[in-house]
Amino acid sequence: MRDSTADSLHRENDARTTARRRFLVGGATALASVPLLGSARAFAQPRSIADPAQPPVPDDYLPGPDEALQWLVEGNERWVSGQLLHPHQTVARRMAVAAGQHPLATVFSCIDSRVPPEIVFDRGVGDLFVVRTAAQTNDGLIQGAVEYGAEESVTPLVVVMGHQRCGAVTLAVEALNNGTDVPAHLVDVVEALTPAYDAAKPLPGDQVDNTVRAQIRLTADQLREDPLLAPLVGEQRVRVVGAYYSLDTGCVEFMLP
Ligand SMILES: [Zn+2]
Known about the structure:
Elements: H1 5-24, H2 65-81, H3 91-96, E1 105-110, H4 117-120, E2 128-133, H5 140-152, E3 157-163, H6 167-178, H7 186-200, H8 207-224, H9 229-234, E4 239-245, E5 252-255
Parallel strand pairs: 1-2, 1-3, 3-4
Antiparallel strand pairs: 4-5
Helix pairs in contact: 1-2, 6-7, 7-8
């Protein structure tokens, strides 16, 4: 354990309070480059948030979609700058969430060992549902997992995160460009990436990077149209956003609809 339980929880509560204040005053520097769609809709669950005297946020506090996004933006800023808080990584947190969880987001991302969601967003235990496949390729099981988070735990934010120089995307692009076969179930990965490949192929620039971005966009669109998620998105209870992670800088670029 890096630090005392009390210190860690105190810092986490401070961080949340600070994030909420910055969001409320509309001066969030972290969001200066993230054009949120209608920030007023951030507070789908308005309990206590308008009260400036509200004490530190309890463990079961669940933000609205835009506030959850704000927390991830700020966590990623800490990862980029090295000013990490390591929130919710204590024995006390483990015990606090043993009986129930209230994750603030579902992150559907690539299996790449260099892109661990809890680390790149500086979060901890009980904060994120994480679903990972090669190049965040989607299928019914994946979609069911994302549905579970939104429906059963009322998780307000879904992030589809791809990344720079994705190996699985590179494999698929090379196989499809050259008409070569890939072994075993990698065929399924290539097949799942074919729509993104087709969408990106006419574009100028780096074909792999364009395919990564197309895969993020298409997968986020699929989730927005999911029969269970679509009504929640329509009611602004859940927000689905794309995200592109830079291996070089550690920065997450959100791709908002
Ligand atoms: Zn990857």
